[in-house]
Backbone:
């Protein structure tokens, strides 16, 4: 027992001695490995200045939130399109004549532009349209100037009774951000009156540039002059036109102050009934007045429809809402 116990003690001492000898070597090895790693300054700075880093992150987050609210947002951002359209109206002329007398004359001049990529033309009855496409590298203002110069050169070869060509730019900013359709158990006349009221309210909003109205019926006064009666009374058609135009006006009458309130005075002269036009005096001959009804028939009707709007097969009135450039498209809608 004593030998075994003494042997165990000796073994423990040997083990302790071996451990005591090796510990300094382990510590030296760890310090050598740590010395191989270099200090990373941003990390050390962030650890030593934790409060400053947290404050900086909070400031960045607040600025980002404010910027998100302030920066305009666009579903269709402003993108320059290197395309222009040259449109010319030549009323009452067949498509073939429009092609030969308008479209080809303009194409000959436009085709000489060096940066031109493609010309696409359409000729229909009384109307010519040419789409001029340029290389993407061209400056749009420079392209517009060159097209104007070529159109000016071609004007002398166009028919005298054709309208002056118009040059239009393509722009995403002209696309409506919203379309409002009005339908109901009303006629198109009443619907258009309601749409015009809504149009005024929409255009009063600061982000809205305009609201274009489509569909409906436009009231129109038709005055059909009788050529035989005009000749009988010795009256020219221009006399009838001038007489109606001079009577169909609103005359401002100034303003009056009543206490703290100022009232504007206006004499309404616009016609709302056919009988008012019929009673206009065109000419006085030998003390006898000659009225519009003596030489023409007057009727309230509707102008020829130039556009139609339908939704699910039902006639509606459509308002195309177009925002101002730079306005937030989400807030506008």
Residues:
């Amino acid at each position: 027992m004593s030998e075994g116990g003494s042997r165990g003690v000796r073994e423990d001492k040997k083990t302790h001695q071996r451990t005591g000898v090796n510990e300094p070597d382990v510590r030296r090895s760890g310090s050598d490995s740590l010395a191989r790693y270099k200090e990373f300054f941003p990390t050390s700075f962030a650890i030593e200045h934790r409060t400053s880093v947290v404050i900086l992150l909070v400031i960045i987050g607040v600025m980002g939130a404010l910027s998100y609210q302030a920066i305009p947002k666009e579903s269709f951002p402003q993108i320059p399109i290197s395309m222009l359209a040259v449109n010319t109206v030549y009323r009452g002329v067949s498509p073939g004549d429009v092609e030969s007398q308008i479209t080809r004359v303009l194409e000959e001049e436009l085709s000489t532009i060096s940066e031109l990529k493609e010309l696409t033309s359409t000729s229909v009855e009384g109307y010519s349209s040419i789409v001029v496409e340029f290389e993407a590298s061209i400056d749009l203002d420079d392209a517009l100037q060159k097209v104007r110069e070529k159109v000016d050169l071609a004007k002398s070869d166009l028919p005298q009774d054709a309208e002056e060509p118009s040059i239009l730019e393509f722009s995403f900013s002209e696309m409506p951000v919203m379309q409002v359709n009005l339908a109901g158990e009303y006629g198109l006349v009443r619907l258009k009156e309601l749409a015009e009221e809504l149009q005024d309210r929409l255009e009063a909003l600061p982000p809205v540039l305009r609201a274009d109205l489509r569909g409906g019926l436009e009231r129109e006064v038709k005055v059909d002059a009788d050529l035989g009666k005009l000749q009988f009374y010795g009256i020219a058609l221009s006399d009838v036109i001038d007489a109606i135009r001079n009577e169909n006006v609103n005359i401002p009458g100034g303003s009056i102050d009543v206490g703290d309130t100022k009232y504007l005075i206006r004499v309404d002269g616009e016609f709302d009934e056919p009988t008012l036009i019929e009673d206009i005096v065109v000419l006085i001959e030998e003390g006898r007045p000659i009225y519009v009804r003596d030489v023409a028939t007057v009727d309230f009707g509707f102008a020829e429809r130039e556009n139609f709007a339908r939704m699910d097969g039902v006639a509606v009135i459509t308002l195309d809402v177009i925002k101002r450039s730079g306005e937030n498209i989400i807030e506008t809608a």
